[in-house]
């Protein structure tokens, strides 16, 4: 069964989130694995709106500390308190816009596991690394750096998202994605999602591959109808 996660990024008010969940939740079948990583303000209302459905709600980031003087940050246990069941970690926008390092992501991953959040660890190479043939090394390094020494990785999910394919409309070919997913599977025992310009028109082809265990959908998860097409297809 494929795992399909929408990443709303910094989009949607509480009212918009509730309307979306009310439209989508009843269409998620028992046994289907579907999640939405929503803005912090929408977590609790989305969890309430999804009650009685298997739709999972998660966060898009967290801090690695238990609590503390970290203005503007959010703790893993606060996400749990709001009803989140998973959290995206190391998304390329966090790495490249907000300067998250491998070490920060490692600490976040450890904490997420400790507080009972399912970590969705995002890895991926930049266009430059892609062109210079370093992609496989880069993702193996990112995977090792984030997970080394973490005692319990049983709930871990990996998302392979080539940076050059995120929000660009340029999807990796399924063949490229398969190659990279194989590498992820060699390095770590966890389901691996593909992310980067996944749309209703290409999702089925990606999901048909044995090595691709699901998809992480950004832009196309903002519209309930296109998200439902991906979930259903
Ligand atoms: P995109 O984003 O589907 O809009 O390319 C994917 C992501 O950033 O997770």
Describe the structure.
There is one protein chain. With 233 residues, the chain is of the alpha/beta class. Helices cover 42% and strands 15% of the residues. The chain has 10 helices and 8 strands. It has helices spanning 14-24, 40-50, 76-82, 92-97, 102-115, 127-131, 135-147, 174-187, 200-207, 224-232; strands spanning 3-7, 33-37, 56-59, 86-89, 118-123, 157-160, 192-195, 214-217. An 8-stranded parallel beta barrel has the order 1-2-3-4-5-6-7-8, surrounded by 7 helices. α1 runs parallel beside α2 (40-50), α5 (102-115) crosses α7 and α7 (135-147) packs parallel to α8 (174-187). The model has no long low-confidence stretch (mean pLDDT 96).
Pick out its properties.
233 residues; alpha/beta; binds 2-phosphoglycolic acid; 8 strands; eight-stranded parallel beta barrel
Average residue-wise pLDDT: 96
Strand content: 15-25%
Gap between N and C termini: 12 Å
* Largest β sheet strand count, sense and barrel closure: 8 strands, parallel, barrel
